[in-house]
């Protein structure tokens, strides 16, 4: 069993949320939880990990003398909704949750978002612990303190900032995740390099192959490096409202594609959105063509992922969702993160990292796909 490596989140949230990272550290979790006063623990898990991970964790907690109630929720983006949120909140209340309880979220980003938002709303906010079981959740979603559900017209339209009491990031959980999930998670890691650290992008891209052998040979080291790369961006802008907006690179088109195409993984959708943004940048004379080529090489050849919108995801439908995007400011233009170079985001004269893009340009680029 490995001792946890403790990373203190530098998001500026007070109090800060400790992030425990290690390989095979789940047996140490009861001791960390016991250091906090609570009347009950409520372990919310995705149905996909209910038998494999949630039940064994519940038994560990019970064996340590900690009370725990296990609640499974259906997975999938269509369940990250008002209906799903209402159902979970009512189940927690019915099961006896109080203001002194702690809710544990065990699963991927959808489960984390749904549970974190439920905890943030229940009795005006109770404590929760994030226990990610996907590479994307462990290296990306757990670090932003953002909880949200989808609306009828788009992703993450309703939510709040509610930091976890702590994050328990055991990379051993990732070994039960399908390979496709790891590829999806690594897209966000490549994105961190594209917007902030060219050397990190090149280093990671060279390690990647469709079978992810190098990643799996050092899963803990890889995850540690990815977490550090995002924390470096969040350090001066914890709520992602100014400079850290660069983390949204590819998300405008990516979120629309993910919302429209059921079963399209978040990271895959973001990769498609990143390539769309790069093509917009090339068309506007901002992004050099070799940046687009390098990005498509990393995503397409190294990871084996698509770089264009899937069939049936028409430009008109994508633009319709983008018009209700939770970051949109104008009805006539879309603001995108664009690149001047690998590792360098384009910045306007006023210092804004978001570039106004006429909808006609974006539509043309999407139609080319």
TrEMBL record:
The protein's enzyme class: lyase
Q: Describe the location of the 3-dehydroquinate synthase N-terminal domain by residue ranges.
A: 72-178
Q: Which reaction does it catalyse?
A: D-glucose 6-phosphate = 2-deoxy-L-scyllo-inosose + phosphate
Q: Which cofactor does it need?
A: NAD(+); Co(2+)
Q: Which residues form the 3-dehydroquinate synthase C-terminal domain?
A: 185-327
- Keywords attached to this entry: Cobalt, Lyase, Metal-binding, NAD
Q: Which GO terms describe its biological process?
A: aromatic amino acid family biosynthetic process
Q: Which GO terms describe its molecular function?
A: 3-dehydroquinate synthase activity; metal ion binding
Which EC number applies? Answer: 4.2.3.124
Q: Where is the secretion signal located? A: none
The record's InterPro entries line, in alphabetical order, gives: Dehydroquinate_synthase, DHQ_synth_fam, DHQS/DOIS_N, DHQS_C
According to the record, the segments passing through the membrane are none
Q: Which Gene3D superfamilies match?
A: 3.40.50.1970, Dehydroquinate synthase-like - alpha domain
Q: Its pathway?
A: Metabolic intermediate biosynthesis; 2-deoxystreptamine biosynthesis; 2-deoxystreptamine from D-glucose 6-phosphate: step 1/4
**PANTHER family xref list:** 3-DEHYDROQUINATE SYNTHASE (PTHR43622)
Q: Which family does it belong to?
A: Belongs to the sugar phosphate cyclases superfamily. DOI synthase family.
Give the protein's biological function: Catalyzes the intramolecular carbocycle formation from D-glucose-6-phosphate to 2-deoxy-scyllo-inosose (DOI).
Please report the name of this protein according to its UniProt entry.
2-deoxy-scyllo-inosose synthase
Species of the source? Streptomyces lonarensis
